[in-house]
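Sharing a chain and its predicted structure for anyone who wants a worked example. Both blocks are below, sequence first, tokens second.
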Amino acid sequence: MSADEASPPPVKVKVHPGLCEGWGECHRSSPLLYPLDAEGKIDVHVMDVPSEHADDAWRGAVACPNQAITIIGPPEDFWYDRLRHRHDYPREQI
């Protein structure tokens, strides 16, 4: 298994509730990690995510049009490199 295929490190998710407008993109990307409340807004404030779900946490965070979710862990390039290696996309297309 190459380093690109190895599990990423665990991450912490921090949600900024005041920025959430209820688009639900995080939930569509990662429904188990990003539950929504009765108003359709993210129902998480801070969450520790184990390594096996870190990719899903990142995908849900970048899907948010309001950038209401912060991933505390590896820098953004780490995640884009993982995605690019997984799908053989050049960085410019991601």
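Comments welcome. The first strand starts at residue 11 and ends at 15.
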